[in-house]
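Could you please consider the sequence and fold following this short note?
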Amino acid sequence: MTHPPYLSPDYRSTVLRAPARDLVMPKLGPDSVELTSPVFGHHELGRLDEDLTRRHAGEPLGERIIVTGRVLDGAGRPVPDALVEVWQANAAGRYAHLGDQHPAPLDPNFTGAGRCLTGADGRYRFVTIKPGAYPWRNHPNAWRPAHIHFSVFGTAFTQRLVTQMYFPGDPLFAYDPIFQSIPDVKARERLVSRFDMDTTEPEWALGYQWDIVLGDTPMETT
């Protein structure tokens, strides 16, 4: 199995989220919501949407990084004009969200969200701050590895895939039930980015490469 199951008891939230009955798929015709929902265009994006470090008056705290890669279909072909969204914690491991109240500092110059469209070669690129680990109370002394959430849209709001990108060598991998809920070791490895010196910009930002392969990169199903 490549993707995590709906129910993974060690990941406690899935006990409440996972369906208790078999899914019932309605029969929809060609005029269904998938074909009539709004589509995205270049005018939807702002000039700084892909640079999470330039959205406020000052520089955010933390390690500046560049995250880039390609969105590919199952045959390895680039997917152009796909809307890619990211959201993440700040360098101290805290989200700019009312639901996150753990005692780590907020950064007034970092809100942790961005988006871009893939180019003709399927490539996306973000400039951001490396997120910190954070506690999440799933079990005693539970900490999430540093990660960035990714969302990839198709041509409608109903065509959306959500996943997470991790950083190489994180010591928390073995203790994280979300990461470990993917039973295939090779599939878990596909969620880990790789450090890339060619992407790294001298005296400015470290670079990481991470491709999203539709149908192959594990996606969240809960």
User: Anything to note?
Assistant: The chain has a mean pLDDT of 88. The chain has one domain: 56-213. The two ends are 15 Å apart (CA to CA).
